[in-house]
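Troubleshooting entry. Yesterday's outputs looked truncated, so today I'm pasting the complete records for two proteins to confirm everything comes through intact. If either block looks cut off, that's the bug. Protein one:
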Amino acid sequence: MVAASGEESKKRPLVFAYYVTGHGFGHATRVVEVARNLILAGHDVHVVTGAPDFVFTSEIQSPRLFLRKVLLDCGAVQADALTVDRLASLEKYSETAVVPRASILATEVEWLKSVKADFVVSDVVPVACRAAADAGIPSVCITNFSWDFIYAEYVMAAGNHHRSIVWQIAEDYSHCEFLIRLPGYCPMPAFRDIIDVPLVVRRLHKSRKEVRKELGIGEDVKVVILNFGGQPAGWKLKEEYLPTGWLCLVCGASEDQQLPPNFVKLAKDAYTPDLMAASDCMLGKIGYGTVSEALAYKLPFVFVRRDYFNEEPFLRNMLEYYQGGVEMIRRDLLTGHWRPYLERAMTLNPCYEGGINGGEVAARILQDTAYGKNYTLDKLSGPRRLRDAIVLGYQLQRVPGRDLCIPDWYANAESELGLRTGSPTAVTAENNSLTDSYPQDFEILHGDFLGLSDTLSFLKSLAGLDALVDSPTKTGKHTIRERKAAAGLFNWEEDIFVARAPGRLDVMGGIADYSGSLVLQMPIREACHVAVQKIHPSKQRLWKHALARQQDKGQGPTPVLQIVSYGAELSNRGPTFDMDLSDFLEGDEPISYEKARQYFARDPSQRWAAYVAGTVLVLMKELGIRFENSISLLVSSAVPEGKGVSSSASVEVASMSAIAASHGLNISPRELALLCQKVENHVVGAPCGVMDQMTSACGEANKLLAMVCQPAEVLGLVDIPGHIRVWGIDSGIRHSVGGADYGSVRIGAFMGREIIKSIASTLLSQFLSNNGSHPDDSEEGGSELLEAEASLDYLCNLSPHRHEAMYAKMLPDSLMGESFVEKYTDHRDPVTTIDKTRNYGVRAAARHPIYENFRVKAFKALLTSATSDDQLTALGELLYQCHYSYSDCGLGSDGTNRLVQLVQEMQHSKASKSGEGTLYGAKITGGGSGGTVCVIGRNSLKSSEQIIEIQRRYKAATGYLPILFEGSSPGAGKFGYLKIRRRNPPKQN
């Protein structure tokens, strides 16, 4: 407790106004402990909360505690116990805290004055800090995360509509004096001054023995407490979910929920800390309250990931660091496959030895600050802190960071200028010290690693997996969990097959691919490696939960697919996935693609597996392959996600290449690319064109793959002239072809095609009824043109001049989905669905591919023209035109626009004009809405210097240092595959 002595004892009691966020009980429970200590020191505490009274009154019985039931923010809206609805969260926050903001501020200022508040504490209500400032009262925040951090990632998923929410929250926080930061914290750039305190946890009232005696539970009974945040989980609990002799205490069960005899329903106001201390382990979701109290009471925690709540990775890392956590796959939670996880939890020995008196320490700091003590350094100005907070919008992007404690969607690319921030495996044959080496640990039975240092590094990482047994802490750039899972993946006495597939840089063509355009794509240096082992089920090394699942089914060894994906923690997704291959069958036939999408959608933390496991289903459905053996698969990709450089295509192509090789399937690179497109379109459900997979499969180093996407006719490889160079610069804004913007533009283009066909049919009928003449179509052969346009299969087969002459003015700017369906029935795109309630842009979406196809053809021709400044100027101009056409479609972004503007400023600067120009053009790439910008320039040292200068300027403006994509590497077809076997296989248990 906070002691008052000396001069402090003579000071008057203080009035604290303590605001509690509306998200979950965890905030209220930690507020209880701080408020309790403040009250013990003789102060009044007014708690402003939406939480139930019992949370506070069960722990504090004092006339100095005042409860005011007001909800000033909504936290994160949960679709269910494990899923946050990102868009609903933003909309609810807007409804709760943004729309009525003026009246909230006026009310709170008046209330703070009416209670004569001396100090405002916020956990972690943004508007409370601003209200305190308006009332002239100092404020402090106590938290492990802030809402600008949580919502910023939601904004990236929801689009720009709610971006101002993040900035407003950050500005509100910037008014507080400092942050009292709790362990397991997230990055919180809105706060410049920070004081760290120990864990804030509620104290125990009763001993383990007392609680068990009250519940009638003997010491010989194993007890798990089911705790999913105090809300009814709504799951059907069955007796067989628990191992024999176990008992489960259920928090938050609904009154009418019927439980089996080995499950005990707890009262809604049950004091959870005592029950946790009386249990042997806990099963629940991660939150501050559950993690802090599990660590404090050394209770093993079996956790299931939540979707889209971004504080979780930090708490999870803290839990696992202190050896207190076991992750359960959501599928196993819902199907009752609990036994292997509970048994694993009983082997843990949580080792947290830090302080648990954070409530007392925080109360002391609050009291001292209110009395005038200065705990903080000289503060920077509010505007400076606000600028740092706004930078968060750029920082919260999925960039491979070097610190595994920070998820990839937050980490800054803080490497030195000019150095790549991705995986070190992205370096190619320029590193002679590596390429002169040979993978001594493996005998290469087939193939050649082509001197690629990233492949050599991958093979060395494979060889080092067994070393984890001897030194579990030496895991290189991967997490302990990833390496442990990978170490148990392969049988080293059997052959392993390795494939490699690069990402791609969209030089020209982009989203016009689905409209049949010519595209020019370059495979980049960064690539994905996949190692596959086909093995008889009796020889496969199954993970314990997969083995237990088979045993529970009472069946012998059956084919199982096991996947480990490196880098999972950087994207807050599960690092492993496993399934019985029979899950892909209904009887003797493969399941439908629709059922496969539903299968992978059940657990968003494992949805990534659709890109990998989906290749197995596509091979089953399209080629009639049946997999009688088990498959173990390791994915290691240096192609960063969300940058618009086809990370998903590289994973798909590498996975299918390795699986095909291991099963003796001879699939041409072109056919393999088309099959991989089916994975993305039909299993993942992303409506991409085929150019990504084609480049990854068919591309060659330092050449542009020229392809007409009708559907995938490779024209050949185009040399990049020696005096020309292309770069990719990442904007830091996450790109996704699964995003609504890309999909809506694609739908708009297909709508435009159907409208054009309808107009052409009408004109053709008029033409024929007028005996072959029509005033609006004077071209010779007009009937043939109209006939072709009435049956137009690809928009890109319509020439720009015909589009302008006949159709441009007749296309609507936009059209409601319902209106289009009423008139035209269907847009005839097999991979997208029209939302009748949505308004789609039509004119710009249809115009873009028609002109883009012409631009790409011109670009290709210019590459072979005479070397001159005019050649480079013309190439650059085509890139600029493409970029602005993307923006007209609604696929631009602040980050990519800024990068293009920086290239233009560099190109038109006095230095460039006075000497030899170096940079000539830039454009957004791929699906747009963020991602990477392609830059074209002269191949010279000065160009490289200017690219680095653009990096510097972009970081100065945004706080984000862009990744550079330089160089190229061979596609999967050129690489082929490696068949390897361990020379001296280690002994395996």
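Protein two, checking that the full record survives here as well:
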Amino acid sequence: MSTRNRHHHKGNAQPANPWNRGNNAGSTDGQQQPKVKNVKTPANNGGPSSSLKKSEEKFAQAHQKNLEAAKKYAAQQSYESSEDEDERGGSDGPTQDILGSVLKNYGGGGGDIGKTQEYLQNLLESRSAVCLICIGTVKRADSIWSCKSCYTFFHLLCIQRWANDSISQKRISHEQQEGYYNSRGEYIPKPALSVHWDCPKCRKEYEPVDIPRHYECFCGKELNPANHLWLIPHSCGETCRKRLVPDCGHNCVLLCHPGPCPPCPQTVVVSCKCGQSNAKTIRCSQRSWTCLKTCKLKRNCGIHECGGVCHAASECPPCTSRSKQKCACGSRTKEVNCSESRWSCGKVCGKKYVCGLHSCEKVCHEGDCGECPLGLPRTCPCGKTSSVASCSEDIGTCGDTCQKYLECEQHRCSERCHLGKCGQCLELVRKACRCGSLSKEVACHKVLNCDLKCKNVRSCGKHPCNRKCCDGQCPPCDKVCGKTLPCGKHKCNSLCHHGPCYPCNQKATVKCRCTGTTQEVPCGREKKIGAPKCRLPCRIHSKCHHTNPHHCHQGDCPPCQKICDLPNDTTNCAHPCAAKCHDAVRVVTKDKNFKPVGPWDVPMEIVEIKQLPHPQCQVPVPVTCIGGHETAQWPCYNSKPASCGRECGRALKCGVHTCPLQCHAFKKRDTTEEDPRCQSCTAGCLIPRPAGCSHPCKRPCHPPPCNPCQAPTKVACHCGLTQIFYKCHEFYSTDKTEQELVAFREGILSCGQKCIKNFPCGHRCNSTCHSGDCPNPEACTKKVKITCECRHRRLEVACSAARTNPRSLECDESCKSVKAAKEQVLTERERAQKEQEEAENQRELEEYERKVGGRKKHRERKRVQVEETKESYWMVMVAVPVGVLVLAVIVYFTLLR
């Protein structure tokens, strides 16, 4: 159990966790102390070394035991972490998919859904769900219960035991309670039993019927939800559908989720609070909105307009305009708020009723006083009989028993009906005195006190009570304290009390430094409050060359805040010193010769008033660099020309480059040409060559143009069979136009031989060596053979005509005769094959009958069948060669023609 969880568990004091009492026994402040058992130490000889050695051994054993416990706890936590990751199927992979599926049906947006997503992500990824009862991690497959107020998770078995034990302890505690008598002798019965159990975290009260009995999902639709890898743990995966809070008529559209439902994301069309603006579409959770118009409604006075920013009609504040108004009876007038125009002066009306005998006893009121109340139907003093009489007549008693409750509110008056109040209760009842030591029967209206003096010490903690028949509530001490107050001048005049005395209530006078201003302060607080603020000028002379006017003060004078304005002798320039006055500056130094005795010794600080030298002049002065590149404002004390750090930039003799040296001095300032101190150009020619030329210019750095490139170059012709030699400046010339250069290159790279490329049709190109695709591929004149549909006729035509219409040759009569001969041969071949199969089947059948011993067939029938079979067989053997011969002759003559 971690220290954080232990502290949290300690905060839930009632009801206590009964099954964790044994583990927390002997602990202090929620931390379990290590127990050391069987510690063998040498015998104590009474010396300090033996006691110190024993303490060190105990500390070493406790330290070793704590280290072992920490290692064991760390190993257990790592094992549980790996086990949880295995159960989740990864650390961060499925979590984002889970949250995406949860929030896919949510139509709202903004910060509310962001908070809900953050709550879910922290809950799933940080493993922050911990059962506060057993201080264990709530895993995916555990049965849980979630509080409806704080939405904290608990194991189902843990919360069931918690609720049952809480109810049992309250019942046991109620049975042990008893009634008691108070200081007035009244019997106070024990309070009624309130059986409920609380959430261990937020202390929300639940009834016994609310003890969870089943494991449900968060929305309560499914019992014992399955542990699905792609759903939130303990969720059914269906839409929540809970009524949103506050109830707006819509349901939650998130998937079954832990924690509270987010605000309603639906949109509604409503007007502003005052109703003056047009309706607009907003979120249902923000159903009311405020425009910037002022309210035009009348306030409660009915005269003035509200004038406030848009709000509901019932939220108009009371009218604050003031006017003189009369009271309700009209006898007084005063200035009041307009909303309080009806006010009462508190005066009794005193006007005579219509009867002229009695006066109105109502407090300041409006309207008529009404009829005389004595003229209305009245009852006798006890209220049992009623009669109607004029207000001048008195209603007498009825003669019956009064029977009104006396002041004790327990007994009734036994006298006859009478005027005025009833007397005191004379019933004898048994009462106990205040201290409870005496009990006897006395009259009900009397208070029973004994003569026993109280020996308890009063609240001051010094004097006894000595009060007779004290009920335990001893009065405060009535003696004078007399202690010297913290001011040290006066004594305490209060009654004897416990604890420190009140501060002194006397006054003392304090004065300023010049004694021109005085002030009265509480006695004893003169040093703490200090001298009063004095507005008179200080009388101490200034220590610098300025006049330093300031008010009277305590301590040293404030430093001068004026500018020095004396000649600056530090830099010996013409500028006056612009620093703050430094004629008299407070300087704190430490004694260099101080030798401390120990680490507690601190060197003494020496405070001196000194005149400091003038600081260096900071006035900006224009300074030009030694190379003449720029002029900048530099401080006066450092106004010597120097290098600016840029490149020199002077043009060199080559006319192409500039001096690369850092800003330096030079002789001629009126020119920008190369100076003797500049670095000469040593670079080669850097002029870019024509596009395609890869040969560098061999001349040193010079202005353009370069000499034509004479390098010989060879390249293959367009067809790749011949190497063409040319000069580089001719092939990549810059004097010709682009069209002329293209035509020139085309003429040079053509070898004049026949092109070796093929047309798309497969025949060789007829043109000479050229670049790009071969020209006119559709005009190929090569001869190709085409055939008719049956491939009997053949004809040679040009390639272009064959590609245009490859099936232009039609079949003739010879093609048809050849086709018919082929069909006849095929028919004869099929018929002969069929007869051969029938003969083979007949032979196999006869062979089978012969083996199984069947009946013999008639010889004549058998002979006829055999003869027919042989005859058909010879006919086939003769017809097939004849047909093949005829077909060959027909094909031969067709081909010749």
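Both blocks look complete. Sanity check on protein two: Residues 1-48, 78-93, 107-112, 856-869 have pLDDT under 50 and may be disordered.
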